[in-house]
Amino acid sequence: MPIYIELVGSLAAAITTLCWIPQIIKIVRHRQTDSISLVTNVSLALGVLLWLFYGMMISSWPVMAANGITLLLILTILGLKLRYG
């Protein structure tokens, strides 16, 4: 696969993985999660988990890494949602 395709995929994975960090920081600072949907985040976590399994089935380290990290970040948000209600 050409390097520019790998770079586009890597950049997309990095952006969509790291985009959850500002949300976590905001929740921790304000200790407020009223505007965060539990159903949406649980659904997203399930979808990301399936992407992780897919990455394992096709032995794709980039897919596994991006979705494994994303899953941890979303689970962190869910934990904070349950903690701060």
From TrEMBL:
> Its membrane topology, per UniProt?
Multi-pass membrane protein
Report the subcellular localization: Membrane
Q: Which GO terms describe its molecular function?
A: sugar transmembrane transporter activity
Residue stretches spanning the membrane: 6-24, 36-54, 60-80
Q: Which residues form a coiled coil?
A: none
Q: Which UniProt keywords apply?
A: Membrane, Transmembrane, Transmembrane helix
Q: What is this protein called?
A: MtN3 and saliva related transmembrane protein
Q: Which organism is it from?
A: Phyllobacterium bourgognense
